[in-house]
Design goal:
Length: about 270
C-alpha cells in the first residue's frame, strides 16, 4: 500500500519499497523471514508518525533500517533526498547523527557505571567535538533542561540506578539530542515505563517536535497511544503497511480488519492519558 506523500520533497526521511529478509538464501528461500516487505514511509519535517503493529510485525526492523544500523535487502532510505545506501565515511556519519534511535529499554541503554554527566559529555564529544571545556558543560546543562531533568545539578551527578525509568528515558533522549538530530526514531519508548510516567515522556517528545522541529517516528503496539500522540498512523502487519492515514481517521474509521483488531484489543483506550 502506498502512502500519500504528505510531506513533499523537503521530507527529512523517506523509505521506498523497504524490504529486509533474514535467514538462509534471502529472497525466495523457504527458510527466509520477510521481516519487512515493501514498506513506503514518509516522515515530514516536524511531523509525528506512528508505526503501529503487534510484536513481530517488523517495526524494529524498519527502525534499524532507517537508522542505518542495517542495510535493506532491497528498497531504499533517503534523507533530504540523498540515498543513504550510497553514503560513505563522513557523509554516512552525518546521516547517523541526524537520525537518532531511542530504544525501548531505558534500563539496558545506559551503562550503570557512568553518571548522567559522563553520558551526556560523551555524546557531545562524539557529535559536537568543537564544544570543549566550559562550553561542553554548558551544553550538557542545556540538554538536561531540554528534557526537564531539573534541578540540573542533582541529575548531573546521578547514576542510572538512582533514576526512575522515566528519568532514564529522558537521559537517553538528551543523549540523542546531543547529536542535533533532524529525526528521532522512538522504538516503543514508553512501553517499559510505569503507566504514570508514560504521558510525561510522550509530552516531552511532542514538545521537542514543537520547539525544535524534530520529526518523530513513534513505534508502538498501542494504537490508543498512537492516536493520542501522532499526526498520522501507519499500521504494520506481517512486514507490510496495511493501512495509513491521519490518526483520527485510522482510529475512528479503520478500514483494514487488522486495524480494527488492534483497536478492539486495546484494553483501555484512555490509559496513556489516564
Ligand atoms: P517488531 O519490532 O514489530 O516486534 P521485529 O522487526 O523485531 O518486529 O521482527 C520482525 C520479524 O523479523 C520477526 O519475525 C522476527 O523474528 C524477525 N527478525 C528480526 N530480526 C531478526 C534477525 N536479526 N534475524 C532473524 N530474524 C529476525
Ligand atoms: Mg520491536
Amino acid at each position: 500500500m502506498t502512502e500519500s506523500p504528505a510531506a513533499g520533497p523537503a521530507a527529512p526521511l523517506r523509505a521506498e519499497a523497504l524490504t529486509r529478509v533474514y535467514g538462509s538464501g534471502a529472497l525466495g528461500s523457504r527458510h527466509a523471514v520477510h521481516a519487512v516487505a515493501g514498506v513506503d514511509l514518509t516522515l515530514g519535517a516536524g511531523e509525528i508518525v506512528a508505526l503501529v503493529g503487534e510484536s513481530g510485525s517488523g517495526k524494529s526492523t524498519v527502525a534499524r533500517l532507517l537508522a542505518g544500523l542495517e542495510r535493506p535487502t532491497s528498497g531504499r532510505v533517503l534523507l533530504h533526498g540523498a540515498e543513504v545506501g550510497t553514503l560513505r565515511g563522513r557523509a554516512f556519519r552525518r546521516y547517523t547523527r541526524q537520525v537518532q534511535l531511542i530504544f525501548q529499554d531505558p534500563f539496558a541503554s545506559l551503562n550503570p557505571v557512568h553518571t548522567v554527566r559522563y553520558v551526556l559529555r560523551r555524546s557531545l564529544a562524539i557529535h559536537r567535538p568543537q564544544l570543549r571545556g566550559a562550553a561542553r558543560d554548558d551544553a550538557v546543562r542545556g540538554l538536561l533542561e531540554r528534557v526537564r531533568l531539573t534541578p540540573v545539578d542533582r541529575f548531573l551527578r546521578a547514576f542510572p540506578h538512582e533514576l526512575s525509568g522515566g528519568q532514564r528515558q529522558r537521559v537517553a533522549i538528551a543523549r540523542a539530542l546531543g547529536a542535533e538530530p533532524a529525526v528521532l526514531l522512538a522504538d516503543e519508548p514508553v512501553s517499559m515505563l510505569d503507566v504514570s510516567l508514560r504521558l510525561g515522556v510522550l509530552d516531552l517528545l511532542r514538545d521537542l517536535r514543537d520547539t525544535m522541529g524534530i520529526a518523530i517516528l513513534y513505534i508502538t503496539h498501542d494504537i490508543a497511544s498512537a492516536r493520542y500522540f501522532a499526526d498520522r498512523i501507519l499500521v504494520m502487519y506481517q512486514g507490510q503497511v496495511v493501512e495509513s492515514g491521519d490518526s483520527e481517521s485510522v482510529t475512528q474509521r479503520p478500514e483494514h480488519p487488522y486495524t480494527r483488531l488492534l483497536i478492539d484489543s486495546a484494553p483501555d483506550p484512555e490509559r496513556v492519558v489516564r
